[in-house]
Structures are given as C-alpha cells and as structure tokens.
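Quick start: load a record and inspect it. Here is Myosin heavy chain:
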Amino acid sequence: MASNNSLRDQTVSTDLEVRQQEFAKKKWTWLIDKNEGALAVHIIKDHGGGKITVQANDGKEYEVSQDDLEPMNPPKYDKSEDMATLLHLNESSVLHNLRDRYMSDLIYTYSGLFLVVINPWRNLPIYSDEIIQLYKGKKRKEMPPHIFAVCDEAYRDMLGNKENQSLLITGESGAGKTENTKKVIQYLASVAGTSGTNQSQLEKQIILTNPLLEAFGNAKTIRNNNSSRFGKFIRIEFGSDGKIVGCNIDNYLLEKNRVITHAKAERSFHIFYQLIAGATAEQKKDLLLEGVRAYRYLEGEANIDNVDDAKEFRDTLDAMRIIGFSEEEQTSIWQILSGLLQFGNLEFVGSRRDETASFKDAATADRVSHLLGIKSADFQRCLLKPRVKAGREWVTQMVTTDRAGHNSNALVKAVYERLFKWIISKINSTLETHGRAQTFIGCLDIAGFEIFDHNSFEQLCINLTNEKLQQFFNHHMFVLEQEEYMREGIEWKFVDFGLDLQPTIDLIEKPLGILSILDEECLLPRSTDKTFIEKCHMQHENKHDKYHKPRLNPDMFILDHYAGSVSYNTAEWIEKNKDPINDNVASLFAKSTNPLLATIFEDFQVNDDGTLVTDRKGKASSFITVSQRHKQSLNALISTLRATQPHFVRCIIPNESKKPGMIDAPLVLDQLRCNGVLEGIRIVRLGFPNRIPFAEFKQRYELLAPGIIPKGFMDGRVIAQKLLDALKIEKEFYRIGQSKVFFKAGTVAELEERRDARLSELISGFQAAARGALARRAFRRQHGKEEAIQLIQKNARVFIDLYQWSWWKLYRSIKPLLGVHRQDQQEKALKDRIAELEAQLEREAAAAREAAARASELEKDNRELETDLDTARNAHAEAVASYKNSEERRQKLATIVSDMEAQADEYEQEIDTLAESNRKAQADIKSLKAQLDDDSKARAAVEEAKAQSQRELELLKSQHDLDSRRQAEEAEAERAKQAKALAEAAAKAEALSAQLERAKKDAKSASAEKDSLQAELDALQAQLREADKAKRQLESELRDAQTETRQVTSRLEAAEAAKAEAEARGKKLNDQIEEALTSRAVSAQQVENAQAEIEDLRNELAEANKAKATAEQALKSAEAKIDQADDQLHEEVSKRKDLDVQIVALQAENASLADKLAKANDAADNSLMDALRAERAKVAALEEKNKSDSSRRLAAEEKNNQLLEKNSSLEAKIRSMRELFAGN
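Running the structure step on this input writes:
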C-alpha cells in the first residue's frame, strides 16, 4: 500500500511539473464566454488600445477586449480545497476550480468560512462509517472538504464554547439540501451518540425522522425527484456531557396546494403513491384503494426512476413504528389519506334553474364519509347547503358548482396541513428532552429561491424567507465583520459589497408594504384581487426602486430580489391569504369517529347553539392571515439563528437535466453570484477572519517564545506585540485591536502547526525523561533483588553446613531432654493461669458494681413512679371535680337557652305583627305615592301642553314670516333668473342664427358643424320651452303659497283660542295640585311615623337576634368545654389504667431484680471464696513444687557443669586431632 501511494504521489508530481512548464511557456488567461463561462486561452499579440488577440486550445483565434479577459492561476492551484487561497480570485477561476474538482468527484470545496457543495446527481461512497471515523476530532486543514468536517467543527465549537450552533444549508431546489441535512444528522448521531439507557433507540428515532418527513413532505418536481416541499429547522439537543438527549423540529411553508394540483411532469406527495403501491390486499379493501390513475389528484407522473414505492412504504412503516406511532394512529392516517384522494373525485353539477350545486355521483361522497368517519347525509348537506349566521339568525346558503369545488379543495388542503403538523408534533413529543438539554445544533433545510414562469403568493413567501436568510448571511459575513474591525480600532476602509437587501424586505413586509396591503384587503368585505393590485400600484409605482408595474399585464407586479427580478401574478391572493374553509364540514370532522381527524379539528367543536367552542366570531381580533403566520414564524427563526454561531453550506445545482458529470456554467455562475460566494471569498481575502483575545493568545502561544514575557503585570496589547515580534510574523498578516489579535486567513493555521510541533517536542522530551526515570527505578529495583538473592543464598549455604554438622545434630537431640527447658515452660504456663484468674476476678467485681448501680437506678425509678402515681391521682380528682362543675354549668346554660328560645319565639311573633303592619303601611304609602305621581304627572302635562302651545304659536308666527319672505325672494330671484336665461337664450339664438347664416355659405365643407349647431339651437329652444314651463310652474307655486299663508293665518287664530282654553284648564289643575300637595304632606307625616316604628322594631329585633346569637355561642362554648372535659376525663382514666399496669409491672420487675441481685451477690461471694481458696491451694502447691524444682535445678546445673567440662575436653581433643591432621 505504501509503495502504491508513493508511486501515485510521484505521478501527480510529474504531471504537475509538466503542466507548470507548459503554463510558463505562454501567457495564459481566461476569456469570458457566455456558454462555457470561461475559455482557457493564451495571448498571441497585444495590439494596444485594449485590443488583444488570443488563441484557444482548439486553435481558434479571437480578437477581444482587455475587459473580456481575467487572470489565470498557475497549475499548482488547480483543484484547490479552499478557493480563498487562490492567487487570482475571479469568476472564471472559481468556476474552473469547482468544475475541475467536480469532474474528479470532489463535490465539496471550501470558500473562505463556508462550504460549497455541488449535487453529483449520483451516489458517491463518501458517507460510510469509516469516513465518519476519519473526520472525527480532526482539524479543518487535516482532512479534505466535507460536510462531516463542518459538522465536526460545529460540534467541537459547541463543546468548547458552550454555545448553540446552526448549519444553514441553502440553495435552489435540486441542489442537494435535503441529502446534506440527512448526512448532518447521520454524523452527529454517530459521533455524539446518545445519553441514557435507550441510546440506540433514540439514535434510530432521530435518523428515521428524515424518511418519515420525506414521505409526507417531499415530492417529485421537474428539477428534483425528491424535492422538499416544506422548510424545516431540526434542533439536535445535547446534554452537559455532549451526548444527544433529544430532537425538535419546526416546519415552515408546507406546499399544501400540491395535494390538489401539480404540473404534468411532477407528482403529489410521495406518501399517496407509497400507500397505493405498498398497502396489503386487506388494507386496500378496507381503505377502498384503487390504482393511481383512478384519482384526479394524482394525474401526471406516477413513477420515479430507480424508486420502488412499495419498498419506500415499508420503510415509512418501520420509521413510524420505531418513532412511536401506534397501530390505531397509523390506521387513522391511512383512512384520512384515502379519504382525501376520494375528495378529488367529487364532481358537482348545477341545476337548470338556479345553478345550485349537487353531486354528480353521490357514491363518491359516501366513500369519503365512510373513510373519514362522518355521516354521508350530514356531509352532503354541510358541503352543498351550509348554514351561515346572518346577524342573530342562521340561514341556509346555496352553493354554486364553482364554489363547491373550491370549498372541497380548501378542505383537502386544510386536512393535509393539519395532519402534517400533527405528525411533526408527534415526532417532537417522542424525542422530547424533558429539560435535560444544555445546548443544541440546528440544521436549517428550507426551499431555495424560486423564479418560475408563473409566480404566485407561495413564491413570494418563499422568496421573502430566502431574502432574510441571505441578509442574515451578509450581515454575519460582511457587516458584523467590518463593524468589529471599527470597534477594535483596526486600520480598515469600510467596503460596500452592494448586498443591501433591506429595501426589498421593507417593501414586502413593513407597514404599507405588499403583505400589509394584502392583509388590509383581507379584512375589507368587498375587496378583490383587482383592488389589491391597484392599491399596490398606487402606493409603490414610481416610488420604490425595487417595485415595477408591467406594461402589458396590469394584474402583475415585479420585485427586484437579490437573485433577480421576479414577476408575481396576484390571481386568488385574497383567498390564499385568508385560507378559508367550510366551518360546517370542519365541525363534522371534529365529531368524526376517526380519533385522529377529530383531534386535528378539535378547534372546530360547536356548542348547542351552533357556535364554535373556540371564540371565532371576532374577525378583527382572532383572524390571522397566512402572511401574518409566516412572518411570525420567520421572525422566530431569524431570532433563533442570531442566538447561534452559524455555519454556512451553499448547495449548487450543476445542471437542470439531472445528469452527472456535466456543468452548466451560466447556471453555476448565476448561483455563485446569488449566494454571495464570490463576495464571501473576497472579504475573507481582504479581511482578518481569525481573531483571538489577548489572554488566550498569550496562554496558547507563549510556549513558542519562552522567556519573552517578563514576570509581573503587563498590558495584554504589549504582550501580544512582543509575542508576534518574537514569532517573526509580518505586519500585513495581523492587526492588534483593543482586546483581540486579528489574523489573515491561514496565519492561525500556521501558528497552530508551529505550536503542535513545539508541543510534540516538549511532550517527546517529557516522555523521554519519564521513561528514563522509570528505567532507572526498575534497574535499582532489579539490582536490589539480585543482592537480596545473593544474601539469601549465602545464608542458605551456612544453614545447610550447620544443619549437616554432627555436633549441631547432637545439640538438637539433647536440648529437649534438659529439665531446665521443661521448668521454664511450666513456669510460663502458671504465670498465664494467674493472669487469667486475676482478670476473671476483676470482671466479677465489675459485674457486682454494675448490679449495685442497676439496683440503685431501679430504686430511683420506683420512687419517681410513685410520685407520678400521686400526681395522676390528684389530676384525676381535679378532673372529676371539673366534670361535676361542667355538668352544673351545662344545666344552668340549658335553662338559659330554653328561656332565650321562649323570648325569641315571642320576639318573632312581635316581628311578624310589626311586619304585617309594615306591609300595610307600605301599601298605603305606595297608593299615596301613586296618587301623588298621577297628580304630578297631570300638572306636568298641563305645563308641558301650555309651553308646547306657546312654542308652536311662536314657531308658526316665525315660520310664516320666514316662508313669506323666502317665497317672495325666491319668486323674485326666479323671475330675474328666467329673464336672464331668456335674454341669454335670445342672444344665443341670434348668435347661432348668425353662425348658421355664415355656415350656409360653406355647406359642403361644414356640414358636420351645421348639424351640431342645429342640435345646439334645438337644445336652446328646448331650454326656452322648459324655462317658460318653469315660469308657469313658479307662478302656480306662488298662488299656492298665498293660499297656504291664508291657511296658516286661520290656524294661528285657532291656536289663540286653544291657548285661552288651555290657560283656563291650567288654573283648574293648579287648584287640584294644591289639594294634592296638602294630602301628600299628611301622607308623608304618616309615612315618617310608620318608618320610625319600623326602625324601632328593627332595633329590637337586632338586639334579640344579638342576644340569641350570644346565647347560642355561650351554649356552643359550654358544650365544647364539656366535650373537652369528657375527653380529658377519658384520657386521665386511660392514663391511670396505664400507670396502674406500669406500676404493677415495675413492682414485679423490681422484686425479680432484687431476688436476682441477692442471688447474684451470694453466687459471686461463693464463687469468689471458692476461687480464692483454690488459688491459695494452687499457690501452696506451686511453692512446694518450686522448692522441689529448685533442688532439681541445682542438680541439673551440676550435671550441666560436668557436661561442659566434658565438652571442653572433647573440643581440646578435636583441636589436637585437627592439628594432627593438618600437620600430616
């Protein structure tokens, strides 16, 4: 293997040298080409004035301008892993680098701080577990570019900085966003693992969320066979140990319209085709499933190349089972999906008279009702004849065929959207962390920028999302980068990269923007798409640089986005933004026997009166449009991203024909411009992307320059400068700010390599010293073992010599026979026995002392018990006396209570009597008040009539005067006006006659003018006739006014007479009023007296009630005291019984202990005396034995002396014999 690698390296090196020599022979450059993007050419001749002749590789020559050429990098930069390191950074060089790597299956390339990936349109063996292990824990420069490297960097940053991370995977549809998202999850699940007992299960669940969501949220489009038709932000959550503890998914912008319609070459969501292909025969029978072509919603493409829908359905079932979907939930989902397919087969026909819709085939409606668990009759009634509330009444609304079809499609979209959200909530509940998450890594996969032939409301929402994400990228890459340079005081000239997207975003979402106007139109009752586009044109046309009105199609508008200009068709925008559904059918769904369908429509449950349980009648307050919901979720997403450290991945689609190994240069360049790839490289090249705080810089790189920093305090900026000078880094590669050191791209990598080399050197030295110390210690230990072994061997040899010596054998044989040896053993045994007996005597004495102490304690306890018994007897006597006193008080209180109750009965009778009299008095008062009110009303009526008559008389007089003057003035003015009109008409007539005379002279040339003048003349004559008629009418009106004046005068006279009569009536009523006032005063006096009596009775009643309450309270307290005394008595009795029992038991125990103590004392005395006598006898025997042993010892000593003498004589003989042998 090593030889193969070296051979390959030599081949690559040789090829590079050849290409380098070829490049040096000619002046190579790039020629910008519309089709190929860039052509490699070399300059033949420079004509001056910007004109140059170049030659391509195929031999063709071109005369081009200097502006059409871009510099080419030397061959050593081919297939560069990071385009920020290119010598010449331009579009042609970037395109060539990407294309060169793509043709070699190197689909990943760094571009400064982010990763560029080109869809290979085929499977590559670069995602296996072996590859994952290669990238685990490696630095970015140590391995080739890969999505795994970005994941590992995010994971390490999360662990090191304790900061949330995010991966923003963006690009157009078909660029590979979804596949790279799956690889991110695969890598994190493999590297981070999971925490807890169910590790493998949680990993499987997280990984299987992707195929499940793809089944319900992905579809085949023209550009992509597995295009995500929704956006998602997957948060993989980690515990404090860096292990995965859970996952959470947020979804955005589900393309629910795809359920009901899609392009001819596309498919609906995968799950419909999977269900039809993979369901068993029994399931198909239960779900009423047929072939794909049997459903109107599934028209178009039915299959995808190299995709088995039946196998995909089995994978979906496995994913649902592992994630935690029960069998009942799965069955409910399949019933809903089959019911939605049947919805698409509903056909409506109109009646001949009123165009009211009806079902063409009611059997289809029956199948829908059966699958969705609702009654067919109710479903048909609610869909075709819904009840709506008009004011306070419910009325039945007749539906046309178009409206019925629209309502049906709206219901299908609503059901699928709610089902999709429920599936995501189910996944989230299964993968919930339960508060264990500390940090997370988020992965954003959302639909890319879309520019179609027909762009509608959905495309505007998607493009707004991408606009804000691109702004976030620009803000992170450009604005924040340069603002930090300014804050740190670095020498930097602010660079404007022309990516200010805020005007377009404000145009869409700010007040008076497009979405704001759309929301306003949705609240107005008679608004239409036409009124909406007219307001947009009026508000923004010629007022905003990003807004344009098409000349040929006024129902559209054009917006300038960062990716290009997009024309939007506003048809059905009002309906799409409102997103209405039939409340009648939705309430049926809420009562469905399908539990899942009832759950997702639980907000449509209705009360008995037909209104929704959830208050939906406040349209202005509770109505939220689709655009408002989208803006809320989008703002939440951007806020989440801003709280993370982002990592950007730009996905590029190489061609739209889905063919591997082919690059569509214009398409790729357009994406590079839209994604800001070139601008990102440029600012990385110009700026200082790597920055390190002073303290960390000193701590990390001080080992590269030991001894440079003196001890003691020193400013961090000075320390950084000293270190940089010692490391010999050129000034152009770094800048020192206020708190950090900023480095050019690649400088920190070089420092890290130097640091790693120094660390390797230091660690190698430390390891060498440690190994030496360990070796020396082992040597000393081994050397000590050898010395010990030699000493043991020497002693063993001496022992063997001694053991074999005959005299030593004789000594060992004689020693046991010596009496002295046995005497020592016996003496030692006697001393041990004496010590044992003394210890036993001490133990017996201690036991006697303990028994005496126990007896004194028992005597003390006995005295305390007798004292407690006396106390208990006294307490019992007191309790008995208290009980007797309580009985006496209770009897007295019972007597008082009975007296109180009798008094209360008397008071109640008196109160009833007073209440009766009070009722009578109140009745009299009411009758007097009614009479007084009638009199007051009559008087007020008379006064009012009098005043009214006076006002009418004055009003009639003033009105008569005004009418007379006004009519006279109007008649005079009308006369003057008519006279003036007659004069003007006559003048006009004369003028027209003159004109007519002049016109007759040139009749042929002015016939049209003659006709018009004649028409004007006729009109003026008609006006004269009308004026005469009006004059006559005014004269008749004048006569009528005069007649009316006479009538008014007669009415005035009649009013004068009525006034006199009213005055007479008024005098009469005044007299009646005075009489009523007199009677009222008398009645008032009676009322006051009655009220005083009632107040006295009330006071007495209150005092009686108060006394009664006091008595009841006293009775209750007495009863409580009696109960308490009874309880105390019972407690004392029980305590006395317990004490008696305890006393008896203690007396018995005391007696037994006294007996035991006496017996123990006697036994101890007897045993002590016996032991003492035995010891005395033993001592006497020992003394006698000792005397005999002494005599024997003397004898043995004498024998021993004799033996020693013999031994010495023998030794003298042995020496003489050895000397004799030695002499011989």
